[in-house]
Amino acid sequence: MQGVYFHIPFCRHACHYCDFHFSTQLSAQSEMVEAMLREWKSRRTALSTTEVSTLYFGGGTPSVLSEAQLGKIIDEIYQFNGGGVIPEITLEANPEDLTSAKINELKNLGVNRLSIGIQSFFNEHLEWMNRKHTASEAESAVKRAQDAGIENITIDLIFGIPISTSAQWEENVQRALALNTPHLSAYALTIEERTVFGKKFERGLLQEADDELVSKQFLYLHEISSQQGFDHYELSNYAKPGFESKHNGNYWKGIPYVGIGPAAHSFEEGKRRWNISNNPQYIKRVMNNEMYWEEEVLSQRDGWNEYIMTGLRTKKGIAFSNLPSIFLSEHETYLNECVNEGYGVLAKDGFRLTPTGWLISDRIIASLFIDENEN
What we know:
Layout: E1 2-8, H1 29-43, E2 52-59, H2 67-80, E3 88-93, H3 100-109, E4 113-119, H4 123-129, H5 135-147, E5 152-159, H6 166-178, E6 183-188, H7 196-202, H8 211-227, E7 231-234, E8 237-239, H9 246-253, E9 257-260, E10 265-268, E11 271-275, H10 279-287, E12 293-297, H11 300-311, E13 318-319, H12 327-340, E14 344-346, E15 350-353, H13 355-358, H14 361-368
Parallel strand pairs: 1-2, 1-9, 2-3, 3-4, 4-5, 5-6
Antiparallel strand pairs: 6-8, 7-8, 10-11, 11-12, 13-15, 14-15
């Protein structure tokens, strides 16, 4: 059983922090759906099984698709599954799109998990990020989905907002928990070069949040969510028992998946593949049977390093049995240093990061990467 990801590369507007691939030109939606279906039909043979267990619509903003457009895609996956149930169908949505009518459409199509991009419950933060919903609209969207019978809902929050305070973040967390959704995702605001914030940063018009503030907010969410019965099972994700993201879990476990659409990534049989990040070119090349992707074959060392990178993002960490025999002896001194600093937990059979360690996970992971001498 594998996952399939559809990248929907359209948004009604551009948020100031986002560097994902998308276009605000919505007129090409129908052409894009046809091109993605053409890609799916040519790619479905890459699946190692004849059953799709998770279907994920990301973007961009998948909720901009019409019922008919989304239905075409879902129907194709159902047909591939022989009409069988797809256990998890996730769709990312902005609150302003989730009217009662839209929610009922999604439910009737089989969408059983919503990922709602709230980001903050403070209107000044939303305006600063160029989000187009208000805090009250966000709460109403969640409640409408719950009233419609969609139980599996995750909401996104952003911490480390330079104009925010710790008190505001604490209120954000409390308001999120009060909505009684079984899953939360929280991401530190990063300033990317090609974004509005990136350009402001280059001109000295924007400063990043202080590291101490970011750390404090991250650890606060970890503590409070744990007290409320959430499992902090991955760096950015928190779930009540049984509500972990099955689709994203495949990424962290190294299970193959197929990505459809411009900028989508795939992992198949020891290969990484990624599609071009250009909507018109993607449509043209797919429809003309031209090359629209690049790929790389992963070496054994690449595979080990990917395992370290993804494994240390999760609460389970890494098992030494999945790494070369020399790994522990080569890195034992550094691993013990991490333990002494409170960044990790070292056991006989593996190593994992603590929440404090997650704050500097990029540095730790880079230090543990396997070089050619360890092969």
